[in-house]
Each structure stands twice: as C-alpha cells, then as structure tokens.
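Suppose you are handed a protein chain with no further information: no name, no annotation, nothing but its sequence. What can you learn? This example shows the usual starting point.
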Amino acid sequence: MEIVLVRHGETDWNLEGRLMGQKDISLNDKGREQAGVLRSKLAGMSFDCCYSSPLSRAKETADIICKGRCDVICDNNLKERFGGELEGTVVDNWGDYKDNKTTETDEKILNRARSFLKMLRGANIQRVLVVSHNGLLKNLRYCILGEKGELDYSVGNLANCDYEVYSI
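A reasonable first move is to predict its three-dimensional structure. Written in structure tokens, the prediction is:
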C-alpha cells in the first residue's frame, strides 16, 4: 500500500506561531490556495480513499485536494495532539509543550497513530491520502519507519500543504 501524508494548509494561527492543538481553526486564503496547488501536484495520482482529521483546517484541505476524486473520511485518530491550556498561546520551546501536564502524552498520540495504521493495514487499499497535522504526522512517519530510535518532535516538520509518500 502507498500512503501519501499531507499536512493541512496554512492558518492565521500558523502565521502567529500559536499552538492550535485540537482547537478548530480554519484555513486562511493562502491555505486554501496551497491546497489547490497541491491538488494540481497530485493530479497524476489516483487514491482509493482519503482519511482526514475532522478539524476544519485538515478537512478543508482534504476536500480541496479530493474534490471529485475520492471520498474524504474523517477519523478522530488523525487529530492533532491535544494542547490543553497551551492551545492558543505562542510556544517557542518544544519542552514547554511536551512537559505541560494538560497536554496529550506522547504515548497517547503514538497509540492513535498505531491504531490508525492498524486499521489501514486491514483494509483493501492500494493508495491512500492522509491529511492531518504536524504532530500526528510525525507519529505516523515514526510508525511507518519501524519505530526505531526515539521520536524527536523538534525535527522533521512538514510545511503547510507539504507531503511525503511511503510504501507500507
């Protein structure tokens, strides 16, 4: 199976450096434009289906990319890490976020990624598009690559509407 991982388009909070977590923040105009450009880049690929986080920034990105191509299925496992009391604030240091007791633990977000991939492996899919968020995508990538070493959240960021392709 081929899996295409996509990070949602830009939001105003991305521009401001605000931690979104599971706050339902919409795309801005540039984010919609980015999704349209990515739709064109992926025009040569067919998808059996698309899974998206139900948060509007990811769902709208998926809808733009997939319009007329395949169905978009929302999956709660694809939501961004819950940011607790830090959602909406500017977080400069990953350690401040990771060590905050109100945020979702590393173990919980990793288990959501594992659960999602387990579901995919049980489906009869050749190529799937997955639209989600930076933190969750890092966990999916970590699982796809065999969970070797420690997951480092400070590296490997995908830009808004960037994508990676993996075979699993």
